[in-house]
Amino acid sequence: MASVLDPRLHTDTEIASQWRLMWWSFRRHTLAMVGLVIVLLLYLIGIFAEFVAPFDPQSASAKHVYHPPQMIHFIDSTDDGWRIKPWVQAYTLERDKFTLQTTFKPDEGKRIYLSFFGKGTPYKLLGLIPAERRLLVPDEPNERFFLFGADRLGRDMLSRTVFGTRVSMSIGLVGVTLSLLLGVLLGGISGYYGGAVDMVIQRVVEFVLSLPTIPIWLALTASLPASWPPLTRYFAITLILSLVGWTELARVVRGRFLALRSEDFVVAARLDGCSEKRVIFRHMLPSLMSHVIASVTLAIPVMILAETSLSFLGLGLLPPTISWGVLLKEAQNIRSIAQAPWLFVPGAFVLVAVLALNFLGDGLRDAADPYAQERG
After folding, report:
1. Is residue 246 pLDDT above 90, yes or no?
2. Start-to-end CA span in the chain (Å)
3. What pLDDT, in 10s, does the model give residues 315-373?
4. What number of other Cβ atoms are within 10 A of residue 247's Cβ?
């Protein structure tokens, strides 16, 4: 007679690991998969920003102030036929004789040809590796093109948005990492030990939750010295966002620990002589890690929106640091709305990133309990 432990007597669902069940459930969530692809793409853009950006984001050009966006074409027609060659229509600057207002007009007789993986302005990838190759550059070194338009100083908005992706996406990731450490540590201690320790930690959590978030962010960031270098200010903003955002995760972890500490496998581990450290990190934490991951994924958009809001109000990151919020601050005037609406492009990136992260978080949350879905 076959043994009851024979894997052939069990379905794949019954013998699969928790992580595999979570993945099977997650990949059935179409929006979550789309969100995952978009989030990975945004982080790749941020990591390789120097390669993706066609120009130095701080490179200004007086003759290209508020240059409109140019559409890229991939088919080039010539007298001999056609060929596959990316190009954009050149523009010329004209000034009205009476109002002196400058406008850009398409120059029908001139095209700016582009090349993929061509040599551009030298840079250091991640500040370490010298390189010259860029994703897309003009064939003529003295030419410039603006797929996302240019700002008030003639700087390429595409390059600046790409570099803003690095800062805005990383500040959410770093901030959530710090919140994760605080939330898991304090929530775990509160839920595992209970008693007076639990009471003290929960009163601290309730005090932080009772504080109005936006005024606290504004007060703390306004107190930062404007003379601090950009890197120092970046870490200070990240720390402020983390100190305010750890409480929700701490409550989730506390509730899970309270439920788990009376489970049979935890009681058995204690009776077997396992240390408290081993019981927590080897037995309890892995059981709620999927829920923690889902909570963290849903917390990243909050961090991104917080940084964007603070920088937009002039109380977060400041130039020359480039983030989506800093770029949106450039659009705080009537001229931008009326004549240069492309300055709102970073806002579209914020929208896409937040939606993608929320889709991803929803998928992870739904997949966190795959056994329940299988029973359903």
Report:
1. no
2. 32
3. 778 888 888 988 988 887 777 777 888 999 998 999 999 999 888 888 887 776 654 44
4. 22
Q: Report whether 365 contacts 298 (CB < 8 A).
A: yes
* Contact present, 258 and 234 (Cβ < 8 Å): no
Domain 31-47+161-375 has CATH 1.25.40.10: no
Nearest to 256 by CA among 188, 193, 196, 206: 188
Can you tell me which residue has the tokens 């990133």?
353
Selection from 212, 216, 189 nearest residue 202 by Cα: 189
* Nearest of 168, 247, 351 to residue 160 by alpha carbon: 168
Could you give the angle at which helices 247-260 and 157-193 cross, rounded to 10 degrees? 40
The confidence score (pLDDT) of residue 17 equals 65
The residue behind tokens 């892995």 is: 286
> 202-221, pLDDT tens digit by residue?
898 888 888 887 787 778 77
- What angle, 0 to 180 degrees and rounded to 10, lies between the N-to-C axes of helices 345-367 and 18-26? 130
For residue 29, give the nearest of 375, 374, 361 by alpha carbon.
Answer: 361
Can you say how many angstroms the Cα of residue 249 is from the centroid of all Cα atoms in its chain? 19
4 pLDDT more than 50: no
The two three-digit tokens of residue 134, written as one number: 């860029």
Domain extents in the chain: 31-47+161-375, 62-153
Ranges of beta strands (E only) in the chain are 72-78, 81-95, 102-125, 129-138
Q: Nearest 5 degrees, angle CA 107-CA 110-CA 111? A: 115
Closest CA to 259 of 198, 203, 192, 310: 192
CB atoms within 10 A of CB 39: 19
Q: Which residues contact 219 (CB under 8 A, 6 or more apart)?
A: none
Burial grade of 343 (CB within 10 A; 0-12, 13-18, 19 or more): buried
CA-CA-CA-CA dihedral for 284, 286, 290, 292, to nearest 10: 60
pLDDT digits (tens, 9 = 90+) for 34-70: 999 999 999 999 999 999 999 999 998 888 888 999 9
Report residue 334 as tokens: 């009537």
- Pair 13, 21: CB distance under 8 Å: yes
How many C-beta neighbours within 10 Å does residue 232 have? 12
